[in-house]
Amino acid sequence: MSDVTQKAPKRSLFAPDARTQKRNRAEKRFQYYGMAAVGVGIFALIVLLTSILGSGLSSFRQTYISFPVDLLAERIDPEGNRNPAEMAAVTTFGYMPLLAMSFQAHLEAEGIEHEMGARELAAMLSDDAPAQIRDRVLANPDLVGTTIDVQILVGGRIDGFFKGRVTMASAERDRNVSPAQLVLAQVLADRGDVVTRFNWDFITAPDASGQRPEAAGLGVAIIGSFYMMLVVLALAPPIGVAASIYLEEFAAKNRFTDLIEVNISNLAAVPSIVFGILGLAVFINFMEFNQSSPLVGGLVLTLMTLPTIIITTRASLRAVPPSIRQAALGLGASRMQSVFHHVLPLAMPGILTGTIIGLAQALGETAPLLLIGMVAFVREYPDLMSTHSNSFPLMGDGATALPVQVYSWTQRADPAFVERASGAIIVLLVFLVVMNAIAILLRRRFERRW
Amino acid sequence: MSFANLSVSILALAAMSATGAFAQSRDNVQIAGSSTVLPYATIVAEAFGENFDFPTPVVESGGSSTGLRRFCEGVGENTIDIANSSRSIRPNEIEACAANGVTDIIEVRFGYDGIVFASDINGPNFAFTPSDWYLALASQLLVDGAMIDNPNTSWAQVNADLPDQAIAAFIPGTRHGTREVFEESVILQGCEDSGAHGAMIAMGMDEDAAEHACLEIRADGLSVDIDGDYTETLARINADANGIGVFGLSFYENNTDRLQVATINGVEPNVDTISTGDYPVSRPLYFYIKAAHLGVIPGLQEYASFFVSDDIAGDWGPLAAYGLVADPELASVQMIVADGILMGQ
C-alpha cells in the first residue's frame, strides 16, 4: 500500500477554475447592475418625494388672523330693516372697507405701531374674508350692529412669509407685499393674533381665483374624482369581467375572437386623450349629457379602464388550472356553474387587483378630461343627483378632478399656487398609495398557487 | 351580482336619458376660451357666485381659438354661453358660427392687457425698441442688398446701447393669441422702423413677401417658442439667466420679486402707460355672449353686466388690481351689455 503514491490533485476542488471564476464574476457584476438599477429608481423616488413634500406639505397649514369686527349697520344694512334680501344688495366689495376699518381700529386700540393706510392694511387680509363675513351676516341678520370676533385668512404673501416663501428681501421687490406689512404681521404673530394652523379648508373648500391662493381648496376636485370612480367601479368591472369570462370560457377560438383579442390589447395602448375625443362625440354631442359632469368623465374613464381590466381578468382566469374545471364538470356541474362556483372565486384576487390598478390609473388621468370640459374652474360642489340638470340628473353638475386641479394650479401666475399644486399631488399620492396597498393586500391574502 | 344589477340599471337610465326630453334648463353659465382671460374670468365668476343667488359659472381655459370654435358649435344647453378671447373674432369664425345657427353675438371688450418683456431680476436692465427685437429675432436680415442668415448672437451686436448678453428669447408659441400681438406690434413694427421693410420693397419684393420675410423668426435655437403658459416661460428664465421672456402684464406683476421688466421706446409698462397708449404693445381682451342664450340660461345677463360693472372692471376693481388695464370706454361697453347690442349693429 505504501507504494501507492497518493497523487495530490493539481488544485483543490474547492478552488474554482478560471472559467468558473469568470462565470461567478459575471454573476456578481449582474447583481451590481441590478442593484444600481434599483438604486436609480429609489433615488428618483426620493428626489420626487422630497421635492413634492418639501414644497407641498405647507399647503396643509394656513395663516389666520383674529380681530374684532364692527358690523356697522349703516354700511351693511342701509335700509335698516334687517331683511336679508335687502342686505344682499351690499356686495362683498362693501364688506372689505368694513374689515379694513375694524383692523385699523383694533391696531389702534391695542397700541400697535405701524405707518400704513387702510388700503395697505386691507391688502394683508385675504380677499376671501369679506365673503365669509357677508355669508355669516346674511345667515344671521341679528349680528348687524354688533361686534364679532372673527378669525380670517391673511393674504397669500403674508401666509408665504410665515412659511418661508416670502422674505423681507423679496418683499422689497414685490409689488404685492411691502416689508412694513411683514413687520406688522410678525408683531401680530408674536402677540398671538396671527397663527398658522392646520387647514381643513385645503381638503374641503372649492377652488379659488388667482387673487386668493390662500383660499383655494380641493373639495370640488375630490368629490368629482370620487363620483368618477363610482361610475368606473359600477361599470368597468361588470362589463370587463363578463367580456373576459365569455372570451376565455365560452367563446370559440377562431379568427373573430383573435381579432377581438388583438383589438383589446391595442385599446390598452391607445393614448388616453383619444377616449376624451370619443367621449365628447358620443356622450356630450350625441347623448347630450352635461359638459364638465363627472358622469361623462366616469364613462370616458370606464372606456379607458376596460382593456386593462379585461386583460388582467383573462390572465387570472387562465391561471386557474383546467383540473378545477374538469373536476366540476365531471361531478355534473354545467359550464356556467363550473365558472361561477369554482373558477371565478379562484380568479377573484387577480381580478380585484386588476380592477384596483385600473381605477388608480383612471384616478390619475387628466388628458381625456380636457376635452369633456372637466379642466375648468368650478366652485359649486356637485350634487349626486343634480336638481337642475338639463339632461341625465345623476352626477349632472360640473366638477373637476384631482389631477386636473394640479394641472390648473401649476398654470396660475401667483407663486403661492406652486405650494397648492404640490399639496394636491400629495393628496392624490395618498389616494393612489391606499388603493395600491389594498390591491397588494388582496393579492397576498387570497392568492393561491398551484 | 348586485354590481351587475346596479350597472345594468345605470346603463338603462343612461339610454333613457339619451332619448328623453329635457324640460329643465342648465342653471349655471358655461364659459371657455383664452388662457389670458381665464384669471380675470375666474375672479369675476368667484365674486359673482358670492354676491348673487346664481351658481358660480364654470370657466374653462384652452385658448381663444378653441373657445371660439366651441362657441360656434351651435345653440343649445350643451354648448357654451360665453367665449373668452384675447383677440377679436375673425370673419371666418363668424361664418362658422352662422353656419351652425349662432347668428346673434354680443362682443364685449372689457379691458386691455399689456405685453411685457421681462428678464431675471439679477441681470442687467434692458431698454428695447421694436427694431432691436426684429434685428435680434429675424431669421434673415437684409445686409448690403442681400438676405443673409441673422448673424447677431448678443444684444450688444443688435444695438450698441444694450448690454452684452447672449440672445435667448422665450416668445409665445403660435397657439397663443399673444403671438399675434407680438408679431404685429413688435416684430413687424421693428421691421418697418429699422427700414428693412422699405428696403425689401425697394428690392422688388411685393408687400406680402416683405411682410412674410419680416415675420420669419430665426430657428437656430436663440429664440424658443413657448407653447405652455407663462409659468413655463418663467421656469425657462430661472434656468437660463440670459433669458428674456414675453409675459402678460398681470403675470409680471405677480412675480415682481423674480423678474425685471424692460422698457419699450423708453416707456415702462404699467396700467397708466398702457391705458394712455404710450406703451406700444398691448391688446384688447374680449368675451363673446351667445345672445340666443340670454333669458334661457339663468344668470347669463347678470354675469355679463357684473363683469363690466365699475365695481369689477373699473379702475379700482379687482381686475385692475390683478393687472388688467381698464377700458377707458367702459361706460359704452356697459351700454352694449345692458341693451344686448349685437355685433355689426
Q: Distance between the terminal alpha carbons of chain A, to the nearest Å?
A: 57 Å
Count up the helices of chain B: 16
What is the rounded Rg of chain A?
Answer: 32 Å
Structural class, from secondary structure content of chain A? mainly alpha
CATH homologous superfamily identity of the largest domain in chain A: MetI-like
Q: How many domain modules of chain B?
A: 2
Examine the coordinates and then state which fold CATH places here, giving the name of the CATH topology of the largest domain in chain B.
D-Maltodextrin-Binding Protein, domain 2
Euclidean distance between termini CA atoms of chain B: 63 Å
In CATH, the homologous superfamily of the largest domain in chain B goes by the name: Periplasmic binding protein-like II
Cα shape of chain A: flat
The greatest inter-chain interface is formed by: A-B, 59 and 59 residues
The structural domain count of chain A equals 2
Give the oligomer, counting copies of the same chain as homo and different chains as hetero: heterodimer
* CATH topology assignment of the largest domain in chain A: MetI-like fold
CATH secondary-structure class of the largest domain in chain A: Mainly Alpha
Q: Can you put this structure into words, describing what you see?
A:
The complex is a heterodimer of chains A (450) and B (345). Chain A has helices at residues 18-56, 73-76, 84-87, 92-109, 118-122, 129-139, 156-162, 168-173, 179-191, 201-204, 219-250, 255-269, 272-286, 294-319, 322-330, 335-363, 367-371, 402-410, 416-446, and strands at residues 61-70, 147-153, 194-198, 376-377. Chain A has two domains: 62-199, no CATH class; 219-446, MetI-like (MetI-like fold, Orthogonal Bundle), CATH 1.10.3720. Chain A contains 19 helices and four strands. Chain A starts with 17 loop residues before the first helix and ends with a helix. A three-stranded antiparallel β-sheet of chain A has the order 2-1-3. The mean pLDDT of chain A is 89. In chain B, α5 (130-137) crosses α7 and α8 (196-202) packs antiparallel against α9 (207-215). Chain B is built from 16 helices and 14 strands. Helices cover 42% and strands 19% of the residues of chain B. Chain B folds into two domains: 21-112 and 284-339, Periplasmic binding protein-like II (D-Maltodextrin-Binding Protein, domain 2, 3-Layer(aba) Sandwich); 114-282, 3-Layer(aba) Sandwich (D-Maltodextrin-Binding Protein, domain 2).
